[in-house]
Amino acid sequence: MTLGIISRDLADTPITALAGDRFLSALVHEIHRQVAPIHLRAGAPDWLVRAITGMREATNLIAGIKAFFRLAGRSREHVARVCRQFTGLSPTDLIAQFRLEYARRLLERTDLSVLDVAQSSGFSNMSLFHRRFRAATKLTPLHYRQQSQGSLPVGDITV
Question: What pTM does this model have?
Fold first, then answer.
């Protein structure tokens, strides 16, 4: 389901609490569904795939690296070694990539405040969020939102 279809469904139904709940549920599902893929090298173990997939859940994303190690069910050292081998990233860098991608999607698709976006993405420190977001996108979160909504020219993003 695309955002256009979700919006049309809302416009075509009477405004009720149920219609609003349905719209928000579909919107949240769409935000979570459209996640940039992590490229795994061939032969990645199933437990790593499951751990990476599990990190798409907001609660795991907020919990961060602890959740990743719990989902992997292996020693930290083994997870770090295998993660780097099959993704090219450390577990910390992988989680940071997930968090920044999620924040980017929230900025594009919601009206949440930048503080709420940071917290929903697992960043408890606004300064760190701004630094990492700007390093990844070359824009502040607010300017990224303005650009994604068409008020600034569109550029490339590297997350």
Answer: 0.70
Burial of 19 from C-beta contacts in 10 A (0-12 / 13-18 / 19+) = middle
pLDDT tens column, 76-134: 999 999 999 999 999 999 999 999 999 999 999 999 999 999 999 999 899 999 999 99
**CA-closest candidate to residue 53, choices 102, 4, 3, 98:** 98
Distance, in Å, from the CA atom of 9 to the CA atom of 119, rounded to the nearest integer, reads 30
Contact present, 34 and 105 (Cβ < 8 Å): yes
Helix (H) or strand (E) holding 21: helix 17-33
Which of 88, 13, 83, 8 shows the shortest CA–CA distance to 52?
A: 83
Q: Residue 146 is encoded by which pair of tokens? A: 């303005």
Interatomic CA distance for residues 51 and 107, integer angstroms: 25
Q: How far apart are CA 128 and CA 82, in angstroms?
A: 27
Nearest to 142 by CA among 36, 95, 116: 116
Total Cβ atoms within 10 A of residue 61: 22
Phi-psi region of 76 (alpha: psi -120 to 50; beta: other; left: phi over 0): alpha
